[in-house]
Amino acid sequence: MTDVVNIREIILAALMEILEEEQYSHIVLREVLEKYQYLDKRERAFISRVSEGTLENLILIDYIIERFSTVSVANMKPAIRTILRMSVYQLKFMDSVPDSAVCNEGVKLAQRKGFFSLKGFVNGVLRSVARNMDKVVYPQAESQPLEYLSVTYSMPEWILKEWLEVYDFDTVEKICLDTHQEKMTSVRCNLDKASKEEIVESLKAQGITVKENPYLKYALDIGGYNYIKAVEAFKKGWLQVQDVSSMLAAEIAAPGWGSYCIDVCAAPGGKSLHLADMLRGSGYVEARDVTDYKVKLMQENIERIGNINMSAVLMDATVFDAESVEKADILIADVPCSGLGVMGKKADIKYKMTPAKQTEIVKLQRKILDTVQAYVKKGGVLIYSTCTIAAAENQYNVKWFLENYPFRLESIEPYLCDELKGKTTKAGYLQLLPGVNESDGFFIARLKRID
Ligand SMILES: C[S@@+](CC[C@H](N)C(=O)[O-])C[C@H]1O[C@@H](n2cnc3c(N)ncnc32)[C@H](O)[C@@H]1O
Asked: How many angstroms does the Cα of residue 335 sit away from the middle of ligand 1?
């Protein structure tokens, strides 16, 4: 590596932004890798691995630090806390870096950041961790199930408690484990533009790994590419990056020929584009979102694909629009949510979400539903979806909605493969669980207007 100290300084700065300044990890890390494109592949891989690994395992790392530090992690200076965290990640998970190098670099980093008086503290904690890592006693599943799940998988206890109210221990452990697994990317093939064979061939010609998706014939799982915008099949508009769970939302919406669709929280446009493809030039899709930036993002996608009956519209879903009343055959409310179903892709979500923030999100979801339900025609369908596993945002919101508005749940079994049919699908909704299903965590309900 060209300059190990600088590489670690880059990681420290990125982690500080994410953990101490509330920035989103996927944005910070993308910007860092763009900025340091000139570094060699190994150095960039080191930056990604240490940053992402530290985030994914933060609770476990803090647990280890607490065993060897006289100062609690919460009371440390932010830079010292972050140096210890990223160093302990390397000690625990990276055999390729010698312990002595991790300790020395941690101490040098503290010095470079001006903490001369804390050099001894950093050195002491790191060397104790390095010497005694094998002796750390961890919570056991039998005697301390909550602490065991929390420390082993670095999952906040409040989230686990919510899940354990609804699912058994084994299911919760599968969800937790899945957040640490490397994932392939789901893509939706646009079979009107190219056959699946052509798309697979084009991907393989670029050295990309391709796997069939178990739930939908036109979905593929791909891996081993660097940058999606450089993938030929993507540039030609043959495929969209979209998790299969999100594709299922459009499948369950099942727009008929000529349907008018309104997607009230549409950006970046995955489900809207999917609906437009399904309409095959008939009907129309209005893809709305609340910021200029996001509407532009959708416009870019519309232009790349070309020739579709869809427009991107700037509109706040919490503000009533009289012109939309009873206009939609299909209304998609893929509302903002806590995102606990996509933690495997965005490791910091689990630390940034809190019960108070979740309560605010539920209020926003209900406000959006309250406003947009009137846009559904009589006999039309409202699809309510989220990328979370929280009952408060999913099942309880649907229950609240049915108690207050003239809709009923409708079976979604006609739209699902056998593997996905289960306890609730006849009743009209589906909760996908990462680690149990081969998808993100996602919730979909099909609600039909009855008055
Ligand atoms: C879960 S994402 C939607 C993903 C999208 N449906 C797709 O499939 O690509 C939620 C979206 O809601 C948007 N949003 C948040 N508050 C909103 C509001 N008041 N009105 C409209 N859109 C809003 C966010 O900008 C975000 O793009």
From this structure: 6
